[in-house]
Amino acid sequence: MKKLILVTLFLTAIACQKKDQTEKTAAVTDEHSYSKPELAVVKHLDLDIKVDFDTQTISGKASWTIDNISKGNEIIFDENTLDITKVTLGDDEKETKFELGAATEFHGKPLHITIEPNTTKVNIYYNTTKDAVALQWLKPEQTADKKKPFVFSQGESVWSRTWIPCQDSPGIRFTYNAKVTVPKDLLAVMSAVNPQKKNDTGVYTFKQDKAIPSYLMAIAVGDIEFQAIDNRTGVYAEPSVLKSAAYEFAELGKMVNAAEKLY
Q1: Three-class DSSP category at 150
Q2: Is the backbone peptide bond immediately before 35 cis, with ω within 30 degrees of 0?
Q3: What would the pLDDT profile of 143-153 be if each residue is shown by its tens digit?
Q4: Residue 56: count of CB within 10 angstroms of its CB
Q5: Alpha carbon of 256 to those of 157, 193, 227, 232, 234: distances in Å?
Q6: Alpha-carbon distance values, 113 to 77, 95, 106, 109 (Å)
Q7: 182-191, pLDDT tens digit by residue?
Q8: pLDDT tens digits, one per residue of 62-72
Q9: Is pLDDT larger for residue 14 or for residue 256?
C-alpha cells in the first residue's frame, strides 16, 4: 500500500511538473504576432528607406539578419497594410517566394517567406500605404510653424508592422542601422544615435546598437532643430517651440542621473 501511495505521489509530481512546463511554454507565446521565433528569429535590421510627403508613403528595403534556429525553409514576419513588392535572400539578392496569409483585424497578415537552412539574411522590398496606422502625416498648416510638413511614428502596441515588415513582438529584440532619405529642407530623427543639424543632402544615417523590441522603432521627419539640455540630453522641436520644449524638459539630465544611481 505504501509503495502504491509513493508511486501515485511520484506520478502526480511528474504530471504537475509537465503541466508547469507546458504553462511556461504557453506563457511565452505572443498571440498578437504571427512570427514563430522559436523556429527563425530576427537579430539585426539594415533599413534603407525614402520618405515621400507628396504620396505620404515610406518605401525601401528592410534587410533582416536572421537566426534560422530550426534550419527550416520558412520565416514568418508580421505586416499590416504594407505593399510587399519583392523578397530576396543574402547579399547576392537571390529572389525567393513569399506569401501573405489571411488577415486578422488589428493584426494584419502573416508574411511567409521561403528561406534555406543556411539563410542568414532576408531582404524585403516594400511600400507603406495611407492606411499605415503607425504614421501620422501632418500638412504644413497642421504644424506649429505652419511652413513645412511633418511625419512621426507611433509603433506601440502592434503598429510597427504598418511601416516596417517585422517580427512585431516585444519578446523579440534586434539592433539596427538605417539610411533615411528625406526632402533636403527637413531633418530626420530616429530611436537611435541622431544628427543634431540638417545637412545639404537630405540623407541621414542612424545606428542603434542596443537590442530593442519592434514597438520602439521610431521615426520623425520635419522642420525640426536640436537644443541641448546638458552634455548628453536634449530636445528636438520646431523652431518656434524649441526654447519652450527645452524649458519643459529642463530636469531631464537630472532624471537620467537619478535613474543611473538606482539601476
Answers
A1: strand
A2: no
A3: 999 999 999 99
A4: 16
A5: 25, 17, 17, 10, 12
A6: 8, 11, 21, 13
A7: 999 999 999 9
A8: 999 999 999 99
A9: 256
- The H or E element spanning position 257 is helix 252-262
Q: Contact at 8 Å (CB) between 197 and 226?
A: yes
Q: Select from 125, 204, 133 the least CA-distant residue to 165.
A: 125
Position 3 pLDDT exceeds 60? no
Q: How many residues does the chain have?
A: 263
CB 144 within 8 A of CB 179: no
Q: Which helix (H) or strand (E) holds 113?
A: strand 109-114
pLDDT exceeding 90 applies to what percent of the chain? 89
Q: Which cell numbers in the block locate residue 154? A: 507611433
Helices then strands, counting H and E runs in the chain, come out as 3, 16
Residues contacting residue 218 through CB under 8 Å, at least 6 positions apart: 152, 153, 154, 155, 190, 191
For strand 135-138 and strand 150-153, is the pairing parallel, antiparallel, or unpaired?
Answer: antiparallel
Q: Whole-angstrom Cα distance, residue 260 to residue 74? A: 42
